[in-house]
């Protein structure tokens, strides 16, 4: 491995335009990257990770500008180049892999045709050469049927495969530097591990330097040689991965590392004769006339306890929630509330029945009406269910805002667009609380949030449960969240419950093979975890391949 | 890019004009300039167009500054980013509103008042067949044209506004209902609207108006009311299409689902949850629809079955005065009479579209 300096950024300042003025996004960050090294950029959202990653290509998003500093790539100053000269570099010597491959591929062209575009444009290879090379890369990335997968359209392959095809595309010109911008954030754990293994392999084989942007610490521990921590546009610290993980110097880094440590005390077992608040009894359901997506699903949720429902996307977790809410009447089976069957459709339920079951949504952006003030978003259920009006209503809203740790005088009059992601999710919680329910469904409430913010939400939910004795059904694919908050766990796969039981049982072997796969696919902070796992299971026994073998 | 090109053209034009104007202006002052400009028809046309554009620009700039400095923050804030076209549009709309509301005080005579002198020529010069008391002359049965032009603003604009409101009430309500309820209600409404839209609008309106004139005769209700309802219903088809499309995008949001499982009524969902989010596209459409309704009314009046005499209205005035266009070669002012009513329609249409463009740009967040 040569130690030649490839990328050298000095005192970089980037500003973004908002409300008629330029606000700083990056305040004087330095960055050095040697050939063949992988640098991990971590930090919460708004820390400037992506902006810095794009700046490494001499590029800024619309409405941003580079206001100072220098960016040197292999000795040439990127900022001094004209647009045309820079275009000759991008794609050929510097490549970019975006977060969502599904949104980045052009849906109207076949994958391989998009793959060959850059090499042909830059004159690196002819179209036939590049096609052959693409198939070779697909083979190296362990894509199924590498000779033919390139002739499919993007929507015909799965998300994880698409992300690997995107990595192959970035490799198509054998660049010196690839920037990975959260390439696995949108993927399931079992799929994520395939992509991680593939990316690491190919970066090592070709000796490519890479900048790996992510907010997932465990992932960056597997991928990066060095880690740089960013906070609001400033560098917090940088060190090589092992020493960074072993002894972080700065307080902020320590707090990031400590996130995973939140864990609730175990609760006493449920009494044998207690009636569950909500009981899902043998539910089979389907959308319209298509095939069943749920098969005879049953589980109980007891008062004041949290049941985590885990599984990959498409396993039917959210569909169960829709059945409980009455949005999707089941074909067979029923949902019992305190031992009595709830009407299948929400339209037939009484106001009281509707009040007792509430839901918190994954995307707070779409769950809160952007045109309604916070006061009315929370005030509406207060007024609707409890009939409070005027001053009484406002007092109750203020009380709820205090419960979710937001200052009423400051937030009552705001609209959702004036809040951060974590604050929006808190408003979503307050809206559910306003109905004074006994049971709340939390549908992936933390998956769109940064780890620190997500931890705050989890702590809040735990506190509210202790104070108000509410039962939660917690839908998630993140097992760290399950460890933190659940009392019982239900594992779902393809619409069936494969395993259910108290948390401590779920996290100790023996498991159902699927649970085992899920658990072992969750990245750990140990930098050797991926290497060990691959050695243990073999490269062909991870992700989709392993799931397929199980069937 | 496009804006840069326009700027270059504008600056080039101004420089060219200045080069043309400077010698006569130096030698003979303003009169010399006008005299020099009148010699050639093309130069004369360009000269007067530039003068009008320049005045419009200055006036709208002054109007915008006035709004920015004297108005409360609610109005002043958006005006700080408003382009001159928007300020021009707002000014013209304001002017029309003032004229239509204050018509009885502004107009020298009543709209139906008949004088003994008929066909008095405009200009107010007795030697040329004019009359100082009727600046724009009188029509075939001796009504003051200036007064009718002013009252026309009130009738035409007022009726158009009422019709557009009604058409939005029908279209938006049905469109949101179709989007929210879906299923066979959506199918039924949409296909019904398709049938209505398949018939050419003006022909359909003519047909219905002919039928309505019989009803009007029997029931004693003014034909104008029938016209408002007919045009509103025909125009609501377009509003329905838009409201349904916008509504469909909003209905899938989680907050609508949250409202549904809360047990909210349809009325609350449509008017409290959906409507506020659909407001800006609907408002922009309102501006455009208003122009089309306005033109439909003027067309119907021109054909003689719209707003009925003695109510003054611009469409009817264009028809009544249209013969005067034949005098264009001899007496430009007289020939311009029918064009004044037409020009009033055109000016308002342009003004409304300027304002709508500005609002669309604001709501879409486009910068250039």
Summarize the structure.
Chain A is an alpha/beta fold and 551 residues long. Chain A has 23 helices and 20 strands. Chain A is 39% helix and 23% strand.
Word description of this protein:
The complex is a heterodimer of chains A (551) and B (368). Chain A is of the alpha/beta class. Chain A folds into 2 domains: 254 residues, P-loop containing nucleotide triphosphate hydrolases (Rossmann fold), CATH 3.40.50.300; 231 residues, 3-Layer(aba) Sandwich (Rossmann fold). In chain A, 39% of the residues lie in helices and 23% in strands. Chain A has a 6-stranded mixed sheet, sandwiched between helices. In chain A, strand 1 and strand 2 form a beta hairpin. Chain A is globular, with a radius of gyration of 25 Å. Chain B is mainly α. Chain B folds into 2 domains: 101 residues, no CATH class; 220 residues, MetI-like fold, CATH 1.10.3720. In chain B, 77% of the residues lie in helices and 0% in strands. Chain B contains 13 helices and no strands. The interface between A and B is medium-sized, with 22 and 15 residues.
Sequence-ordered SSE layout with sheet pairings:
The complex is a heterodimer of chains A (551) and B (368).
Chain A: E1 5-18, E2 21-34, E3 38-42, H1 49-55, E4 64-73, E5 76-77, H2 83-89, E6 94-97, H3 101-104, H4 111-122, H5 127-140, H6 159-171, E7 177-181, H7 189-206, E8 209-213, H8 217-223, E9 226-231, E10 234-240, H9 241-246, H10 251-258, E11 278-285, E12 294-301, E13 306-310, H11 317-325, E14 332-337, E15 340-341, H12 351-356, E16 357-360, H13 364-367, H14 374-386, H15 390-403, H16 408-411, H17 421-434, E17 439-443, H18 451-468, E18 471-476, H19 479-485, E19 488-493, E20 496-502, H20 503-506, H21 513-521, H22 529-537, H23 543-550
Parallel strand pairs in A: 3-8, 3-9, 6-7, 7-8, 13-18, 13-19, 16-17, 17-18
Antiparallel strand pairs in A: 1-2, 1-4, 4-5, 9-10, 11-12, 11-14, 14-15, 19-20
Chain B: H1 2-38, H2 41-70, H3 73-80, H4 84-101, H5 103-106, H6 145-181, H7 183-198, H8 201-219, H9 223-251, H10 254-262, H11 266-302, H12 314-321, H13 332-364
